[in-house]
């Protein structure tokens, strides 16, 4: 399949249309830089039914509304938004070339803000989506642990990750059950002892069936049926850093993009922000990194060619 370059070389290409990518686009456009955002509608923010810890929204804001506001703001200042998946990224001389279906785009700089993908529980997709929409299935106790205060809560996970998530949630509720996703728990003696001491039950999975009620998610294991106000999936996530690997940027052992204090990667002209970078997976943190990245991009480009207003 033949691809064609878009005519104009952009100052910056932003890959990812979540809070980090859109915040960066707003900054970059307001710096009078030409910027295009490419996204494939995969931002985790889009599945947030209601965020209550995002500053400025005392009654909460849904992920879709927040993204819509940010999209509109970025476009208001001149950023272009394109719903296309970038499949290949490489560098030719001093320009980056990003390829998508039926086309390519060139830019002087690239900001990667592709985030991560949650590993979901084994349940039908319609059931999963409905459970998330109603707050019956959750992925981020930092975001919404407050909402399950003093309610019965299940944590699906094991090992150190499952252990830490259950202990974290213990500060919100004493009615906690840690369920292994498959077979026996992979917990150390110290972890098992700590859970017992904290009154956190341990159940052996897997989940055999799931029922969603108005205010309850009911799950059945091989030995028991539990009713929870919410079930937290502590199964980890997959980092979307493939494009960073393609251009040779250094990654952590977990696959996060390594950056300096100004969000620069190890490849000149290539930057990263948000959940694809190691750190606190929070909207506010991603937006802060994006502001730093965009300002660094503006200053780095200005050192190459003075940014003068004609």
What level of helicity do the residues show? 25-40%
Q: Counting H and I runs of at least 4 residues, what is the number of helices?
A: 8
- Give the class from helix and strand content and strand pairing: alpha/beta
Classified in CATH, the superfamily of the largest domain is FAD/NAD(P)-binding domain
What is the straight-line distance between the termini?
40 Å
Write down the Rg: 22 Å
Structurally, how many domains make up the residues? 2
**Can you summarize the main beta sheet?**
7 strands, mixed
How many strand elements? 17
In CATH, the architecture of the largest domain is 3-Layer(bba) Sandwich
Order of helices and strands: EHEHEEEEEHEHEHEHEEEEEEHEH
User: What best-fitting shape do the alpha-carbon axes yield?
Assistant: elongated
The CATH class label of the largest domain is Alpha Beta
CATH fold naming of the largest domain: FAD/NAD(P)-binding domain
Q: What fraction of residues sit in β-strands? A: 15-25%
- Mean pLDDT across the residues is 95
Low-confidence stretches: none
Structural features, described:
The protein is an alpha/beta fold. It has two domains: 10-117 and 237-304, FAD/NAD(P)-binding domain (3-Layer(bba) Sandwich), CATH 3.50.50; 120-233, FAD/NAD(P)-binding domain. It contains eight helices and 17 strands. It has helices at 19-30, 63-76, 125-133, 141-144, 159-169, 189-197, 242-246, 283-304; strands at residues 10-15, 35-39, 80-83, 88-92, 95-100, 103-112, 116-118, 137-138, 153-156, 176-179, 201-203, 209-212, 217-220, 225-228, 230-233, 237-239, 270-272. Strands 1, 2, 3, 4, 5, 6 and 17 form a seven-stranded mixed beta sheet that branches. Helix 1 (19-30) runs parallel beside helix 8. The longest helix has 22 residues, at 283-304. The protein is elongated and about 70 Å long. The chain starts with 9 loop residues before the first strand and ends in a 6-residue tail after the last helix. This is Thioredoxin reductase. Keywords: Flavoprotein, Oxidoreductase, Plasmid. It comes from Rhizobium indigoferae. Residues 11-290 form the FAD/NAD(P)-binding domain.
């Amino acid at each position: 399949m033949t691809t064609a370059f878009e005519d104009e070389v952009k100052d910056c290409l932003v890959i990812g249309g979540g809070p980090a990518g859109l915040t960066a686009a707003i900054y970059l456009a307001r710096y009078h830089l030409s910027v295009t955002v490419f996204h494939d509608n995969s931002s985790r923010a889009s599945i947030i039914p209601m965020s209550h810890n995002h500053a400025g929204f005392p009654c909460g804001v849904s992920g879709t509304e927040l993204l819509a506001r940010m999209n509109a703001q970025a476009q208001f200042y001149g950023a272009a938004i394109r719903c296309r998946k970038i499949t290949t990224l490489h560098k030719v001389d001093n320009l980056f070339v990003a390829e998508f279906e039926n086309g390519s785009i060139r830019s002087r700089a690239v900001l990667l803000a592709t985030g991560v993908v949650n590993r979901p529980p084994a349940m039908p997709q319609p059931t999963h989506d409905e459970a998330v929409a109603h707050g019956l299935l959750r992925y981020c106790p930092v975001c919404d642990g407050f909402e399950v205060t003093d309610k019965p809560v299940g944590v699906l996970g094991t090992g150190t990750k499952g252990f830490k998530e259950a202990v974290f949630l213990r500060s919100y509720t004493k009615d906690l059950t840690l369920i292994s996703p498959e077979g026996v728990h992979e917990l150390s003696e110290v972890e098992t002892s700590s859970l017992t001491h904290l009154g956190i039950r341990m159940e052996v999975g897997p989940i055999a069936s799931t029922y969603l009620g108005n205010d309850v998610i009911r799950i059945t294991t091989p030995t028991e049926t539990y009713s929870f106000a919410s079930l937290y999936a502590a199964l980890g996530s997959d980092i979307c850093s493939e494009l960073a690997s393609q251009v040779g940027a250094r990654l952590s052992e977990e696959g996060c993009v390594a950056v300096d204090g100004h969000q620069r990667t190890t490849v000149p002209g290539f930057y990263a922000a948000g959940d694809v970078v190691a750190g606190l997976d929070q909207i506010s943190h991603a937006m802060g990194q994006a502001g730093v990245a965009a300002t660094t991009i503006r200053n780095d480009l200005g050192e190459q060619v003075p940014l003068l207003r004609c």
